[in-house]
What does this fold into?
Amino acid sequence: MNDKAVLGIVVACISALATLGAAYINKLDFNPEHKGVDQRVSDLSADLRDKEKSLVALKQFASREIKPTPRRSDESCLALIKEKTRDANGVAHPIELTMHREQEKLVTYSTGSLSAVAGGGLSGTANQLFSDRSGPGSQPFNLAAADQLDLTLTPTGSLHIHYKPWNFDTDWALSCKGSLMTSYLQNFGVVTLTFRD
It folds into this structure.
């Protein structure tokens, strides 16, 4: 069984558990004298629904069979990456990373850092917040529901992302303008990485 099949099974199981949990909570008959219980149940139900939406989006993401690097990186990123890798002492460069989906109502926002590695390029980590994961007061991009990313940026501008919670990978051939690096993948959307130093 390949990694994609395993991922599909895991996503399906977690989605089923979230649905069952929400259904169970909705059936519970709490004592109204227990102050705050109803609100906590309501918040938990909303959280489960949000996570289920994220799992559905993730399943759609995986099912699209996004292939690594649909095109080669152009040469527009060479100067920027050379500048960021000039310091070989492991200076962490702060970055922001966004993904704006084209056909699904989903935006992700990540903050993290990249440091120069031996042989050229940079690597680092970032968190990933989701527009469909709500926090208190239905605020999107719930900080308590972040995923973690491992990032590798090659000297030519190819960005490799490993999605740690779900154990799958994507690759993006980026083009650069100033400190901004971006790529569009048809039927998926836009990925943008920006250096913030």
Notes: The CA atoms of residues 1 and 7 lie 10 Å apart. Helices lie at 3-27, 37-63, 78-84. The two ends are 44 Å apart (CA to CA).
